[in-house]
Amino acid sequence: MGRNEKCWCRSGKKFKHCHLGRENESPVSKGDAIGYSQKNASRKCCYVPADLKHECSKKIINAHTVSKSSSLKEIADESGHVLGLKINLANIIKNEGKLVPEKIGINQASTFKGFCSTHDKSLFSCVEDREFVGDDEQCLALMYRSVAKELYAKEAALNNSEFAKNGDKGKHLLGQLSIQNFVADQQKALNAALAELLELKSELDDQLLGKPFGNLSHLIIDSTSPMPIAVSSIVAPLNDFDGNLIQDLGDLSIVAEHLVFNSFSSNGKGYVVFSWLKNSTKVLSFINSLLALEENKTFSALIRFFFGVAENTFISPIWWDSLSDEQTDKINDLIMSGISPFEPNNDNLLVDDGVNFSGWNIGSIRKINF
């Protein structure tokens, strides 16, 4: 290329200011990568609607996506720890690319710097300070927190991908091309996902600011015993519990339909709450495949779902220690599913494979605004 031509990597910079001589540059060090990752993972913001920004306090806190006071304390061991995934670059390097459940103190579990102290209190006190009854306010709060956490994670992934472009320093041209093309494809998918999440958040913002609740649907499953798994997440489901294709997210022209899900305990009882936009017919089809299962198969199906699609998941150490090797191996396999971008999607991820789990019995199932 000519020195003054736009660089082939589509950075918008001139070639002489971008990739000219890149193969002779010093590679990015492991320390630099870990340092950037840690800084990116601790950035501060408050995800309230723009109309409420003027109320923000100056203090951005470690906001819990899963209630510490009820849910995490309910499943913690005597030392105040739960099991969860420590997803950071340093830990991934230490574990040679594997994600494994490790002990996490309940003060650190499920936290992110996504709300100021004022709004973390005002928005979520309805689930933190009241017994869960599944009213509109509580279900909206659960949804809002999960969506905010996912936005925070997706924005972090986009920032990390920008840093990853520097990973071709010191490599020959073919290596540079490979890295830049991989990052470009990754960013295309991340930007599409961010646009969809922001659209969903806009809907929830309207609800938070007083719009009627009629466009949200919820499924609430409860039990008289605490739920040994705590989770708060959101997913665009690919396949249902029978292995049928729900939506093909490989086609970026398709607008994904999202499902928000939370599993937690409140006042000694356990709850699983699924929430979605009422017009999301594909998500409703997914929910119906769960409801069609025999009741004694539901908890095992939830285990496959939680660990197969979510990372913000926390486990009772007592429940974990009660599992057989086959059961823990199954959960570890579920955790690693979908991690590698070079492996095809497993259409049967949620299908019953004979590995069953116990420890939580269904009490009742409530449908809201189906």
Notes on the structure:
The protein has 370 residues and is α+β, with helices and mostly antiparallel strands. It has 2 domains: 30-208, no CATH class; 216-368, no CATH class. 39% of the residues lie in helices and 16% in strands. Strands 3-2-9-6-7-8-5-10 form an 8-stranded antiparallel beta sheet. Strand 7 (259-266) and strand 8 (269-277) form a beta hairpin. The mean pLDDT is 93.
The gross shape turns out to be globular
Strand content: 15-25%
When the domains are counted, the total is 2
What is the makeup of the main sheet?
A: 8 strands, antiparallel
- What fraction, in percent, of the residue positions are helical? 25-40%
Order of helices and strands: HEHEHEEHHHEEEEHHEHHE
Q: Return Rg in Å.
A: 22 Å
